[in-house]
Amino acid sequence: MIIDFSKELQLDKVKILFSNERIKTFPQKKKIINMNQTHSSKISQVSNKTLYYKSTDGLLSNNINHILEISVADCLPIFVYNQKKFCIGVVHAGWKGLKKGIISNLSQALNSYDNLSDFKIFIGPSISQKNYEVKKDFLEYFEREYFLIIDDKYYLNLKKIAVKQLVLEGFKDIEVSKICTFENHNFHSFRRNGTEKRMRGYIYYE
User: Which of 44, 56, 83, 126 is the most buried (most CB within 10 A)?
Assistant: First the structure.
């Protein structure tokens, strides 16, 4: 299963794909760049020599021949692109990354750009709040507005946290997928069944 979000987002020459398995066929001359995600807050600028980044949860590239890959199974796959001054990026954001400041680090990594409002952000399919129960002590990490509390159970809204943090950094054009990875059985969800399989997301220039 491959979902092409490019048409829905009305993108011009930038492709965003989401799949329940690794995609192996891409246009010639393209290089796939991936990372060993560790729920860190590290953002790496991709060089032309390195195809794999260790202990990294975000990639940025200015090379039109790069395909950036991200793996998720409930966490937020955040796709970043600027078509005025070409740049693409992917960020893996779970509660740990959001708590550690990965969105702020993304903003700092893009500080060479005059205006973050030129960037478009797409938060892909991820777990919905009603399916993401957390412990009460998460109230120490995030403000109460991000929680739904029912019968002494606490449900965290990762998407709302990410959007708020992105807006505070200066990003304005933000789209959020309504697809829940927990509810849709075409998607891999760690919370649903403890799977080791991962969804794959890709962003690249056509």
Answer: 126
C-alpha 53/C-alpha 90 separation (Å) is 13
- Taking a C-beta distance cutoff of 8 angstroms, is the pair 66, 204 a contact? yes
Q: Rounded to the nearest 10 degrees, what angle do helices 158-169 and 102-109 cross at?
A: 30
The pLDDT tens digits for 94-153 are: 999 999 999 999 999 998 887 899 999 999 999 999 999 999 999 999 999 999 999 999
pLDDT confidence of 26, banded at 50, 70, 90? Answer: confident
The whole-angstrom separation of Cα 165 and Cα 147 is: 16
Kindly report whether the global pTM for this prediction surpasses the value 0.90.
yes
Token readout for 206 is 């056509």
Distance of CA 65 to the CA centre of its chain: 20
Counting DSSP H helices and E strands in the chain, the numbers are 4, 15
Domains of the chain: 2-127+159-205 (3.60.140.10)
Q: What is the pLDDT of residues 45-100, one digit of tens each?
A: 999 889 999 999 999 999 999 999 999 999 999 999 998 899 999 999 999 999 99
